Amino acid sequence: MTTEQYLKNLKVPTTKVDVVIDTDTFNEIDDQFAVSYLMASSDKLNLKALYAAPFFNHHSESPRDGMRKSYEEILRLLELTGRREFIPVTYKGSETYLPDEKTPVISDAAENLVERAMQYSSEKPLYVVAIGAITNVASALLIKPEIAERIVLVWLGGHGREFHDNKEFNLHQDIAAARVIFKSGTPVVQLPCMGVVSSFSVPYVELEHYLRGKNALCDFLVDRVRDEVASYSEGLAVSRVLWDVTAVAWLLNDDNKFMLARLDTLPVPEYDGLCAYDHSRLIQYVYHINRDTLATDLFMKLTGGKCFD
Questions:
Q1: Rounded distance, CA 132 to CA 178, Å?
Q2: pLDDT digits (tens, 9 = 90+) for 174-192
Q3: Which residues are registered as beta bridge partners of 91?
Q4: What is the CATH number of the domain that holds 279?
């Protein structure tokens, strides 16, 4: 890939593009919003496949369990939205994290991404929206390094450059995988969490006001948020950061209406929770989110334009 083409691929696409999404859907409640937002943006985004990513926290017993629960949550969303046509292109991902920076974790998701990406080119890339641990994508790059020039990776991972550490959940689960993708040569758009995407906070009362009662999907999403925040928010004025929505929104970011980004140096995550930088290469780094504009677009699409009725 020429430098000119590499830099071109770091820009928001101006035409309708093919997209796959890699998601730890059961980890929190923002993945469900992101997947729904992507499907509701079919005028610009042509969804080709969905991959379940591993995660391990209080919602799972292991990365394998997290991946399987995420896979089941994707299917639940597809049934709820009546988008059963995507069930055959929904794939289970990695059951473990990378053992090192050279060994892929073989999974249906990684193998499908390899096969699918090889049908594209640097001039017409496949866009990979990743909103969980990056194991599946890193494994695909290790299986077939040639796909690095055939995809554009939009990843929500890591923290803002002014933050005191880089121990962000998606990145820190599989640091080896994060190092693989940043070193792979693929164009990367990074949406950092703390200090950047953390500003996309939506009050629970706002979700109730704009989404409740509009359709079955909206009620499902609001209920998911209600159940999640009930576990830690008693007595508090509650808002939730819908982190993963922003990764989808980057692909829709005409005229910088949803966020601002800049070319910046390539990060190299370290195993101690900090980050080094490779000044010989560039990524697209999102540094500001336009919260109200993005929230409005999200609510409009989820409700079919009825959020202000």
A1: 11
A2: 999 999 999 999 999 999 9
A3: 51
A4: 3.90.245.10
